Amino acid sequence: MMKEQLEKIKELAESELEKCGAADALEALRVKYLGKKGELTAILKQMGGLSAEERPVVGQLANSVRQTIEEKLSARAAELKSELAAKKLKEETLDVTLPAKSRTVGKLHPLTVTLNEVKEIFLGMGFEVVEGPEVEYDYYNFEALNIPPDHPARDTQDTFYITDNVLLRTQTSSVQARVMEKKKPPIRVISPGRVYRSDAVDATHSPLFHQVEGLVVDKSITMADLNGTLELMMKRIYGEDCKIRLRPHHFPFTEPSAEVDMMCFNCHGEGCPMCKNEGWIEILGAGMVHPHVLEMCGIDPEVYSGFAFGIGLERITMGRYQISDMRLLYENDMRFLGQF
Ligand code: DAH
What we know:
This protein is an alpha+beta fold. 41% of the residues lie in helices and 20% in strands.
């Protein structure tokens, strides 16, 4: 009777262990069969009621059943463990032949690239780079540049006023007087920065743009120095075959004044849509510093002379990269910026 029960337990345990597919289920089976309240233990507890002959026989059988179950348990545990490891290995395979993820590396904005180049060129000629405030006194933006209140030149540079005598500067020329008040000649500076004008946005206008101002004051500075300096800068930016020309113009703070054109890089002077059929493209304003401007800053115009110029940074950037719409420079569209 007990022998049959033992055989049955063994059989059942074996088939259940065979089917068991997880470690926690395996533990449950161990408790079920071998635990303190397990089936085998329950049988062994009844052995007291057996006869002296039967007891060793049943005892032996019970031991062998226990041993069989224990062996099966640990064999199954080992199997499950290696199955799990194999599964994990398969799931975690790395395909090293897949192409790598590329990393996006930032780039300098084309305006910054051009500005860095301009700085480099002028540093090489012994210039110093100085900065001036964007929120400026009317005095430096206009009056110190020979543009008194009510001067018509103010209308062409309509700006954003903060108070009656404080405004967003319309030109980096505002730095000229600031430099001349502090430094005595020889002066050789460039001053890059943002300027503001109350202009509507279109392909060639923006209420915020950038200029680079240049100022040289020393003894015996002539228009030839201005011409040579500008020509050198333009050749360095656009290549050795770049040509410039000076056209007479008027600025209140220079005398004589000139507008400077470069030969169209697209048609080399022939005339094309890029230069509106002119063959030349205007790039900057310049001239010999007006004696009265020098005087207002305490520099004797009988002893010293100087030249000044103001370059539009957008204009030369658009020229060298053939960008037809200024707005592209401000929109931060990565499809555009990624091309430089
Ligand atoms: N400030 C002028 C402008 O914004 C450009 C300019 C003209 C600057 C002549 C100069 C200069 O220094 O001498 O239109």
